Amino acid sequence: MSEKPAAELFADKVAVITGASAGIGSGFAEQAASFGMKLVLADIAEERLETFAEELRGRGAQVEAVRTDVADPASVQALANRAYERFGAVDMLINNAGIMAMGFSWEIPAEKWDAMLRINIGGYVNTLREFVPKMLEQGTQGWILQVSSIGGLFPSPLMAPYSVTKFGTLALTESLHYEMAMLKAPIQVSVVLPDSVKSEIFSAAKGEGTLPAADAFNDALQHRADTVGITPQEHASRVFAQVAQGRYWATAQPEAIDAGVEPRAQMIRNRVNPVLNFEV
Q1: 162 is catalytic
Q2: What is the chain's percent helix, strand, coil content, to nearest 5?
């Protein structure tokens, strides 16, 4: 655990951020740039990524923007090559890239299920497989942040692929945390559990063909993000502060988690059947 504030601890470090061109990822990038971190930004949306990278460069940030399909191991390998060619090291990896699909679990098309598993889980695995050995070889202090969700703690109807992949991220991240401990590696692992953050994730999923049964739920979630969600920049600021303190659980909105964890634990302990709560 460091006593240094995030801005001091992370200054001049190199951060690789996936899903960096919008939403939570862009918030991490902007906050990291404000610390003076050197950035390697990855996203499959190449034009949007380059536009965002240019904005950050205009503020004085050192930025390498790399179009990356995290579901493709070769693309992730190319990302790592660019990062090390440009900056010579990677101190922080933020696994954030992800997509959304909504609807009844049996009606969501197989190709959407496959895409979410390949990107939301496979993308994290590909990135870890590429960067962790290199970060271990560096032997320097490092940080790995894995973005899950409050949805990784509380399953939801009409969002089964998202719940599956965010629960999977929790398992993957905790396993990685234990593995770093086994190796006594100087790499801190943190799992990030956002609640509502202002972004277009729900409207984007709807635009890709959300099934009619999920439309109202989708709209309600997007409305919640728009009205009560925190900004990506505020989310990143809170997360970086907690990571700098050495925390595994990075919870920018702890009140949302605290309200649900104990009742859920009691439900499991008492073997009570889950009850639908459709409030958003």
Answers
A1: yes
A2: 55, 15, 30
47 phi and psi angles, rounded to 5 deg? -65, -45
C-alpha–C-alpha distance, residues 197 and 228, integer Å: 8
Question: For residue 196, what are its two tokens?
Answer: 């509502």
What is the token pair recorded at 85?
């060619």
Contact partners, residue 175, CB within 8 Å, separation at least 6: none
CA distances from 29 to 89, 93, 94, 188, 196 (A): 17, 12, 10, 19, 19
Residue with tokens 């634990």: 265
Catalytic residue among 84, 162, 178, 248: 162
Instruction: Tell me the pLDDT of the chain (280 aa) as tens digits.
Output: 667 999 999 999 999 999 999 999 999 999 999 999 999 999 999 999 999 999 999 999 999 999 999 999 999 999 999 999 999 999 999 999 999 988 899 999 999 999 999 999 999 999 999 999 999 999 999 999 999 999 999 999 999 999 999 999 999 999 999 999 999 999 999 999 999 897 777 666 665 555 666 777 767 777 777 777 899 999 999 999 999 999 999 999 999 899 999 999 999 999 999 998 765 4
Quickly count: other Cβ atoms within 10 Å of residue 228's Cβ.
Answer: 11
Residue in 45, 1, 54 with CA at minimum distance from that of residue 23: 45
